[in-house]
Design brief:
Blueprint (H helix, E strand, L loop, with lengths): L13 H11 L6 E2 L16 H12 L13 H12 L8 E7 H16 L5 E6 L4 H8 L3 E6 L1 E2 L4 E2 L1 H10 L5 E5 L12 H13 L3 E6 L9 H4 L1 H8 L5 E5 L11 E7 L3 H19 L5 H10 L2 H31 L7 H5 L4 E3 L4 H11 L1 E2 L5 E3 L8 H12 L1
Parallel strand pairs: 1-12, 3-4, 3-7, 7-8, 8-9
Antiparallel strand pairs: 2-10, 5-6, 9-10, 11-13
Helix pairs in contact: 2-11, 2-12, 3-11, 4-5, 6-7, 7-9, 12-15, 14-15
The chain binds pyridoxal-5'-phosphate.
């Protein structure tokens, strides 16, 4: 028999399955709201003009293609840290490394916690959470559990449930928090609620792990979107952080990210950094340089940085506008449902509250494709398709 005769067929990736079905559909006005990538109002992938300029600068500099160090391009890493933490702390307390985008940052974090975290090696993620969190952390050797997050009845935050669950975790657990633009629900705590969440995490002696995949992409303001992280630091937490530049710089395929751990002192940061290097070396030796150079060229240049911030805001604003337009169109069609959650949610995704059967109908009868959990990528909505989308949603919910 062949060596691999007993390898079982694995299930296909849920999102890729949607893309496949979408591609096969011959409907001229089919709509794909499955993928989590920004689209412009013509439904096309968008390369930020600031990225184009920065990329040209990088090419014109005719840099060599030597290996980066294990922790990546230093100017990128220090700029990324500044973007996330601003002046909430002394950066010499932060141990940081470039990572293979947000996923890689989470994976390094998982591996570091698995090896060195002295508390309970269980990471609690929200229910629901980004589909990959469970796999990333369990492949890192951590136990994965869930805390209450989403309230089906209100299509909003189950704030009381969340705080109660945090308080009831075994003392010293790891709590994964989406810094902003929660995926898949689009439901974020208010600043007032974040304060209470910080208190609950402190009360439990837990360790906060922030996943910040959408800084700037939620509200359009990179400082506002970093509120939770910076508030936790102000409150004396020493969290770790996974950053991604996939969405806010549109650098998806370049895989630009950073992983950092806030420590108690520069001396501790140095010890932690030495161990992060020891972890990364056998994983991939060192990260790719091009995307990090591009991001660094933007973050390190006042004019380009200002341009980028305006472009991030424009992306966030377009998404916010599409939420309003979808709600408006549903109301115009006479939908008796309350769609206010569409506009109170934030970020790339909206949780419509539609069930799996309704999502099935959307695909089969209206050629509108999205995940079965009722999540739609608002980035895939345009002024050109929003009316048809509203009609389809109204038809399956009416
Ligand atoms: N974390 C969350 C919550 C996400 O939604 C994503 C991307 O969809 C990621 C992390 C990581 O993405 P990437 O590895 O492309 O940076």
């Amino acid at each position: 028999a062949s060596t691999w005769a007993n390898v079982p067929q694995g299930p296909p990736d849920a999102i890729l399955g949607i893309t496949e079905a979408f591609k096969k559909d011959s409907h001229p006005k089919k709509i794909n709201l499955g993928v989590g990538a920004y689209r412009d109002d013509a439904g096309k992938p968008y390369v930020l003009p600031s990225v184009r300029t920065a990329e040209q600068k990088v090419v014109d500099a005719r840099l060599d293609k030597e290996y980066a160090g294990i922790t990546g391009v230093p100017s990128f890493v220090s700029s990324a840290i500044k973007l996330a933490y601003a002046d909430s702390l002394d950066p010499s307390r932060v141990s940081a490394t470039q990572s293979i985008s947000g996923t890689g940052a989470l994976r390094i974090g998982g591996a570091f916690l698995q090896r060195f975290y002295p508390g309970v090696k269980t990471v609690y993620i929200p229910n629901p959470s980004w589909a990959n969190h469970t796999a990333v952390f369990s492949d890192s050797g951590l136990k994965v559990e869930k805390y209450r997050y989403y309230n089906k009845e209100t299509i909003g935050l189950d704030f009381e449930g969340m705080v109660e669950d945090i308080k009831n975790m075994p003392k010293g657990s790891i709590v994964l928090l989406h810094a902003c633009a929660h995926n898949p629900t689009g439901v974020d705590p208010t600043q007032e609620q974040w304060r209470a969440i910080s208190d609950a995490v402190k009360e439990g002696g837990h360790f906060p792990f922030f996943d910040m995949a959408y800084q700037g992409f939620a509200s359009g303001d990179t400082d506002r979107d970093a509120f939770a992280l910076r508030h936790f630091i102000k409150e004396g937490h020493n969290p770790c952080l996974a950053q991604s530049f996939a969405k806010n710089m549109g650098l998806y395929g370049e895989r630009v990210g950073a992983f950092s751990i806030v420590t108690a002192s520069p001396e501790e940061a140095a010890r932690v950094a030495s161990q992060v290097k020891i972890l990364v070396r056998p994983l991939y030796s060192n990260p790719p340089v091009h995307g990090a150079r591009v991001a660094s060229a933007i973050l390190g240049d006042a004019q380009l940085n200002a341009q980028w911030l305006a472009e991030v805001k424009a992306m966030a604003d377009r998404i916010i506008d599409m939420r309003k337009l979808l709600k408006l169109n549903l109301e115009r069609l006479g939908s008796r449902r309350d769609w206010s959650h569409i506009t109170s949610q934030i970020g790339m995704f909206a949780y419509t509250g539609l069930g799996p059967e309704q999502m099935e109908l959307l695909a089969k009868e209206h050629s509108v494709y999205a995940t079965k959990d009722g999540r739609i990528s608002v980035a895939g909505i345009t002024t050109g398709n929003v009316q048809r989308l509203a009609e389809a949603i109204h038809a399956v919910t009416g």
